Amino acid sequence: VYLIIMTYAVGVDLGGTNMRAALVDESGKIHAHAKVRTPVEAGPEATAVAMNALVSEVRSSETIIGIGIGSPGPLSRTEKMIYQTPNLPGFDRFPLGQRLQDLAGCTVFLDNDAKCAAYGEAHFGRGKGRNNMILMTFGTGIGGGIFVGGRMLYGKSDGACEVGHLTLYPGGHRCPCGNRGCFESYCSATAFKRRAFDKSGHEMGGREIFEAFDQGHAWALDLMKEFAVDMAIGTASLVNIFEPETIVFGGGLFSTGGGPLCAWVQDAIKDRCFKSSQRGLEIVPSALGGDAGVLGAASLVFHLRQ
Ligand SMILES: [Zn+2]
Predict the structure, then answer these.
(1) How far is the CA of 12 from the centre of ligand 1 (A)?
(2) What residues have a C-beta under 5 A from ligand 1, the ion?
(3) What pLDDT, on the 0 to 100 scale, is given for residue 1?
(4) Which of 25, 112, 113, 205 has CA 20 to 30 A from 76's CA?
(5) How far does the centroid of ligand 1 lie from the alpha carbon of residue 175, in Å?
(6) Is 140 helix (H, G, I), strand (E, B) or coil?
(7) pLDDT at 42 over 80
C-alpha cells in the first residue's frame, strides 16, 4: 500500500475591506475557503486574532507546513511587519505576521500582495516554467511582481517592483506616493472606471464597460484605444528594462472581462520597444482569477520552503 502524502499550506489575502483564507495543496487545488470583514477600526491586534480564527476555520484537521499572508505594502519580510499602508490605518510597524505566528503556532511568511500573486502565477498559472516573468495587478492601484532569471526582485528593503509608480505623464495627476502622473493614476481599474465615466457620463463597473465595448458603443471603443496605449507606454518601459518571456495582467480589471486588452497592448507596444525583445513575448491575462490572492499567498509558503 502506498500512501500519497499531500502537502498543504494556508494562504491569506489581507485587504482593507475583507480578508480571505484558503487551504491549498502543492498542486494549487483549494480544499477549503473562508472570508471575513477586516476589523480595521478594532485595530491590528483584533485583526491578528480574527485572522487566526479564519485560518483555523480552513485548516481544520490538516497538517500545514505554513501560512502565507499577502498584504498591501510597503512591508518587511524578515520582521513580518507592515510599515505603513493607507488601507490599514493604525497598522504602522505592527508585526502582524509575527503575531499570527505566535497565535497559530506555525511558520508565517508575509509578503506584498502583488508579489504573492506573481508567485501564484509562477507556480500554478501562466508563469509556469518561465524564468523571466512580470505580473501586474490592476485594481485600486497597480501592483507588480518581477522575476528575473527565476528570482523575484526585492531591492534593498523589499520595496522593488512598484510598477504602478513609473511616470506616465510628467506633470499629470498627483499621486499619494508623492510623484505626479504615475502609471496607476491612469491605468488602474479605478482609473479605467473614471475614464469611462468621463466619456459616457455614466457610473459603470468594469463588466458593463467591456459589454458596452462588445456592443459597439463609440465611446467604449475610444476608451479601449486610449487606455491600451497608456498601458502599452508603461508596459514597453518594463519590456525594455527586463525583457520578460511572459507578462501576466491580473487584478479586478482582468477578472471582470479585461482579457481583450492584452492583444491591444501587445499591438500598441510594437512601436515602443526593441523588436528582438518583442519576439516570443506573450502578454496574457491571469489564469488564477479571483483566487489569485489566496493561491499566491499559499505559493509563498511552498516557494520559501524549497
Ligand atoms: Zn505614485
Answers:
(1) 26
(2) 165, 175, 177, 179, 182
(3) 61
(4) 25
(5) 5
(6) coil
(7) yes
Cβ–Cβ under 8 Å, residues 206 and 258: yes
23 alpha carbon, distance to own chain's centre:
19
250 C-alpha vs ligand 1 centroid, how far in Å? 19
Would strands 133-138 and 246-250 be described as parallel, antiparallel, or unpaired? parallel
Amino acid identity of 235?
T
Name the band, by pLDDT with cuts 50, 70 and 90, for residue 306: low
pLDDT at res. 2: 66
- What tens digit of pLDDT does each residue of 232-267 get? 999 999 999 999 999 999 999 999 999 999 999 999
Q: Ligand 1 centre and the CA of 240: distance in Å?
A: 21
pLDDT at 39: 96
**Burial degree of 121 (CB within 10 A; 0-12, 13-18, 19+):** buried
Residue 183 and residue 156 in contact, taking contact as beta carbons nearer than 8 Å: no
d(CA 130, CA 280): 12
Please give the grid coordinates belonging to residue 70. Answer: 499577502
**Rounded CA separation 253/256 (Å):** 6
pTM reported for the whole predicted model: 0.93
Distance 96 CA to ligand 1 centre (A): 25
Taking the centre of ligand 1 as the mean of its atom positions, its distance from the CA of residue 186, in whole angstroms, is 11
Distance 248 CA to ligand 1 centre (A): 21
Tell me which H or E stretch contains 178. Answer: none
How far does residue 191's CA lie from ligand 1's centre (Å)?
13
C-alpha of residue 188 to centroid of ligand 1, in Å: 12
